[in-house]
Amino acid sequence: MTNQTVVELAEATYHELNKQKDKDGDGFTLKRAQMFAVEVGGTVRIIGTCGDVYELLEEMETKELLATDVAVGVETCGWASPIAQGEDEDNPLPPSQHPERRRVRLVTMVTRKFEVASAMGFADTPDEVITDAGTARGALADALLNTAKSMVKASK
């Protein structure tokens, strides 16, 4: 897959998962993170849920993928805050306490060839989806990549 194809798949998955939400909700207050697999053709299948996204990823490490799965990923909601210029990512102030915090919904995925892409939206601009072609950094991106590697290995 090309980077553009992976990004398009991430954005399509973001929208598909949003359609599956309770229409009474706002889509930005998930009580449980979800892990999903994307099959050839774009069918999205939920393969696990948990209140903590990192626990979910740890639980999924030994799971096998179907032969038709082209990618796995997670969907979660939380708080995001800007990183000021010159500030590092390990700011001691949690995003939930930052004065400029924004509610975010994030879908991040990894293909069988370990290509990474994500799509996210903010509650204050719900019609705008921001995509990323694998430049995301941090604990969640690292944990998902490690889980995907374990799942691909378990499937061989």
Brief synopsis:
This protein has 156 residues and is α+β, with helices and mostly antiparallel strands.
Shape: globular
Number of helices: 3
Strand portion, in percent? 25-35%
The strand order across the widest sheet is 2-1-3-4-5-6
Helical residue percent band: 25-40%
What is the C-alpha radius of gyration, as a whole number of Å? 15 Å
Spell out the helices and strands N to C: HEEHEEEEH
Instruction: Determine the mean pLDDT.
Output: 87
Number of strands: 6
Could you walk me through the main structural features you see in this protein, from its secondary elements to its overall organization?
It is built from 3 helices and 6 strands. It has 156 residues and is an alpha+beta fold. The protein has one domain. Strands 2-1-3-4-5-6 form a 6-stranded antiparallel beta sheet. A hairpin with a 2-residue loop joins strand 5 and strand 6. The two termini are 20 Å apart.
